[in-house]
Amino acid sequence: MPSNLHIWWSRTPLAVERSILFESLVDDPAEHPELFPEKVQQRDERDRLLQMAGKLSEVESMGDQDLLEKARREIQRNVVGKTPLVYDPFAGSGTTPVEAHRLGLKTSSSDLNAVSTMITTLVSDIPSRFSNTVPVHPKEETTLPITLSYAAGIAEDIHYYGEKVEKEAYRQIGSLYPKIIHPMDGKELEVSAWIWARTVKCPNPTCDCNIPLSSSYDLAKKKGSEAWVEPVIENGSVRFCLHRKPHIEGKGKPKVARTAVFKCPVCGQITTDSYVKECGINHKISSQLIAVVADDEKKRLYLEVTPEQKSAADVKAPEKVPHGQLPAFARRFSPPSFGLTDYADLFTNRQLKFLTTMLDIAKELQPEIEKQAVKRGYEDDGISFRDGGHGALAYAEAIRIGLVVTISKLLDRCSNLCSWDSSGGGSVRNVFSRAAMPMIWDFAEPNPFNGASGSFSNTLERTCTAIAALPAGIEGNTIVADAAAPNDIRDALISTELPYYDRAAYQELSDFFYVWMKYGLEDLYPNYFSAQLTSKAEDLTAFPYRYDGDRKQADAIYDEKLKAVFKNLYESASDEYPSTVGFIYKVSTSSEDDLDEWEAFVTTVCNAGFSVTGSWPLGRKYESSIALAESRGIPVTVVLRKKDASAPQITRRTFVAEVKREIPVILSELSREVNVMDLRPSVIGRALNIYTRNKQVLNADGSCMKPYEASRIIEQEIDTLIHTYYEKSNQGCK
Fold it and tell me: pTM for the full model?
């Protein structure tokens, strides 16, 4: 699935999107009295359809071909005229086109971000272009245990040529990854990871020690398999002695505060955070290898550093590596505060050598793949994949895209920002456990050639298995485009998820991958990768740091972009079918004309000409309390329709009366259908319909009630009623 193919920081769960698309295209039986004239018939048919939608929303239904075929037939039975195109202008990791294809629907997707676009190209466009193909590689047998149908043929080729890239890379640079000899039995073992600690010179002028900037000296805490290292002082310098036993209390706390404050193991001097930052800015932070992790069959071993291992890690950086400046956004990107200002700084020289070698080989392999494709009967037409080609060149480029995306995914576990998790038997953590890039002091460098987690072969296997399971053969087209710019999409079923205001800096986060995708694919997509880093100016987010810390300017620019996006969505949307838009619902705390992100969203939706008809919370982990969930914000899918031209005009008095009459009924109905934690975000959409179903709501002075005013009236009414439901549930509203 897309999550197995590459990391992305916001994605609608596949099963949720599958159900959303199905329900957007299948009518309620009450809409067809000619087919279901009796109430009981409508109820029975509604129950049948809801049961089908419920099954589609289960993760397991992804592979239930009988259910999917029934869903496709149901969709075709309900569509009026031509089946609409599914349009997603914020493609992310490609969830919408994947699930649309699973339901037999054509798609058009776009994203401002080239990384997102290449991920979606791999999960959507490539399977749609090359479905049910026979692998072109020369081996008789397959290298993946899969049935060759749908996208499995091209997945098999990506796997075969990925193995070939890895084999050639090992031939060229395998000497940089030597095995290690077990000191007890002399057995030669494969290294799975190297554990490093950054170091700085002790600030004590009488001490010549390099202080290990380690968060902990623990390597493994699993009972019976404990391991830790102890700094040993020899001639004023530090080496590490390994212990395979439970850690003695009080001996493993080199980091003595939350900030960069460490204790010198020689003289006891404590660094300050500012001193360590100054060392980093002046390029005076180094690193020291402190332990080696090896695997003896299924047993994990921790070994002391040998001269051979230390020498092998001492690698000169390649001449050509990707560069780019990290953002000056310390709250979410802390490495620049410590001198790691360039993306090349986030990798060891050995990792830089590995990554550039792999990407270079993938590029060099493309002509060979093209020749094999011609031998297998592909047309030698010279038309590239980006230009719509179906021949040998396009096929070879598709394989290369798959390889580059796989190598790019490996970056998440192939960086000096990967920490070591000692909580169990020990393992490598990935860089992006959340939508931020924290500074890591002691880092783990996995062996990319050993076949375990963090290796290329493991990543390749997961990628190709996921591709093989993707729906294929349904037309999909993905491009880099700004959702705020005019487009030619019309009469489409829109299903998308907007960036969440200031919760994830998608562009900045993706630059970590962008610089490497640019290195690997710039010749194939020069327009996508023309800039050194991703575009920030057009990004639909509101980060004040981009505007010298000016929150008002950030909000003003965000509002303008949001208006342009919804103007385009309105022009692209179908009159017949609803549009669904993912956003963060957060209970308003604003006052007067100071709108928060939810009120800005509601205002823009209404002013664009849409009516809100419903809202449903997306699949999520529940917070510890309702109050916490509502204050942080809850991801919801908001259901929109183009406003009826014959919509009435009502007075404020009438609107308030309808709010007080209808919201109690909505609350009562939904309280029987949803978890109490989901009650408010489920109610808000139907409640907003009370306002948005009207052409205008007139105040007593004849002015039009603004959307945010209506939203606040609705929120206040919900507030007066919903606490009763919270108290009954024992959840409370702490």
Answer: 0.93
